Amino acid sequence: MKKFINDPNDVLPEMMEGYLRAYGDIIERIEDYPSVVLKDLDPGKVGLIVGGGSGHEPIFIEYLGKGMADGASQGNICAAPSPDNILAVTKAVDRGKGVVYIYGNYSGDCMNFDMAAELADLEGIKTATVRVTDDVASAPKDRISDRRGIAGDFFVMRIAGAACYAGYDLEDVKRVADKANANTRTMGVALTPGTIPGEKPAFTLGEDEMEIGMGLHGEPGIRRDKIQPADKIVDQMMKMILEDLPFKKGDDVCLLVDGFGATTRMEMMIIIRRVSQLLDKEGITLHDVKFGNFATFQEMAGSSITLMRLDDELKKLYDSPMWSILFGQKGFSTHK
């Protein structure tokens, strides 16, 4: 795979150097680790750390901002950050009110963040954990705690960040983040594989094939099928999403269409068009739409659809002012 890299072993440090050149007025690196925190942290608030393996940009670094995350703890490409890495970020963002950890539900991340929480406790820092489990294809509903976290990370992190900025205490930040997670569902379809720099593609697909339910690291989906017209693909994805919560007539939802890294805006607009038609048919109100690359795997093509159901509290938090690296700086509001 052709890529703008030098030595594959230098991808992460060179990427971090680029981020610090681009956003050095906003973020600073944690010494000895490929992790960053905001330079300007509001005092007296609960801290919010997001994290996981690198290689999925813009998540996690570009999720930093006011009303979003305070720090991002990153590991190597597709690898969990170490406990000492997470602890260093925890100490940097703690302002005496405790720190919330939010990350996708993967075994390495779970183990290392749990170890970091124990180390933080020894340092006198209270922590709370929210594991995102939005991927409906990764486990049945009766094993929802086994599901992966994918693009729905964005909605859960946004709600938690808004709650921190609004002055919620540690327990209430965790409560609303858990509520956001419980009301968020995602389904993805891959059309081409992604790669780890310097390695072979993570999986193979025929020219006429798609993987329904593919994970963010190339984990197998629920089935492989022949490529179909966009509307038919979206109909299959939405059926699984809508039935899983279930979503129902009268609900207000936020929609996120993720491009995985290689899907064009043209294609995402076609997806948004069909999703909107289906929501209208079900009597579900579309409160806001986000589209683009949110959680990627290098040059993987395909898309995921995420819906978050809103109640009054979640809507108020979601619509509150924010800015982030991903969405642009000060003065931006999440809701259009």
From TrEMBL:
<dbReference type="Pfam" id="PF02733">
    <property type="entry name" value="Dak1"/>
</dbReference>
<keyword id="KW-0547">Nucleotide-binding</keyword>
<dbReference type="InterPro" id="IPR004006">
    <property type="entry name" value="DhaK_dom"/>
</dbReference>
<dbReference type="GO" id="GO:0019563">
    <property type="term" value="P:glycerol catabolic process"/>
</dbReference>
<keyword id="KW-0067">ATP-binding</keyword>
<dbReference type="GO" id="GO:0004371">
    <property type="term" value="F:glycerone kinase activity"/>
</dbReference>
<dbReference type="GO" id="GO:0005829">
    <property type="term" value="C:cytosol"/>
</dbReference>
<feature type="domain" description="DhaK">
    <location>
        <begin position="7"/>
        <end position="327"/>
    </location>
</feature>
<keyword id="KW-0808">Transferase</keyword>
<dbReference type="GO" id="GO:0005524">
    <property type="term" value="F:ATP binding"/>
</dbReference>
<dbReference type="InterPro" id="IPR050861">
    <property type="entry name" value="Dihydroxyacetone_Kinase"/>
</dbReference>
<protein>
    <submittedName>
        <fullName>Dihydroxyacetone kinase</fullName>
    </submittedName>
</protein>
<keyword id="KW-0418">Kinase</keyword>
